Amino acid sequence: MKDRDGDRRLGRRALVLGGAAAAVGTAVLARQELAHVWWRLPGVEKPRVKGAVDFPGARWLAASPANLRRADRPDDYGIDRVIVHVTQGGYSSAVKAFQDPGHGAAAHYIVRRDGRVTQMIRELDVAFHAGNREYNERSVGIEHEGFVERASSFTDAMYAASARLTAAVCGRYGIPVDREHIIGHAQVPGTDHTDPGPHWDWERYMRLARRERAARTR
């Protein structure tokens, strides 16, 4: 899950390129860069409350700032994917890795075997979880405690809690609850990962997520 996605800061280069673009009506890439970092200007960034979570009931444990990129999603990067991961280890080891600045990766959420949810990165921000910069920018990453080779990792409580979480994310950003938009890490272009693996019951998971999404729209 290594993805050392470097931060793009609003600095001299962006301002110079942006000025040139305005002057000559070209430099499309420069304008796109400015569109993604305008909120870094003083007084523009959305208010952030320490310890606030996006999913009610989740526990907050902050990931290392080295394993994410501050952003203003969905205003600077649209969110149109949920990516399902498996930790290949226990909950505590996943938290430790995501809080390690040398790890180079972290997800927005971890769902435990007992259904408890921990949020480690705000959905506003880009988490380095997918191994693909574009997919990181457009997705919310959800880790699940366990091992891809162990069907016993995926409990009833985990499926139910994760489906509620995914339905909430999809509702917040208008994401269709289908397999085009809710994908496994193994489906991300360029990745060498296999999670969530052959024991993840996609049919069950999608059925639960659709039921949760329908309940939220009544």
TrEMBL record:
Name of this chain's protein: N-acetylmuramoyl-L-alanine amidase
Enzyme Commission no: 3.5.1.28
Entry keyword annotation includes Cell wall biogenesis/degradation: yes
InterPro entries: Amidase/PGRP_sf, Amidase_domain, NAMLAA_amidase_2
Domain N-acetylmuramoyl-L-alanine amidase: 68-197
Domain of life assignment: Bacteria
Reactions that this protein is recorded to catalyse: Hydrolyzes the link between N-acetylmuramoyl residues and L-amino acid residues in certain cell-wall glycopeptides
UniProt KW keywords: Cell wall biogenesis/degradation, Hydrolase
Pfam families attached to this UniProt entry: Amidase_2 (PF01510)
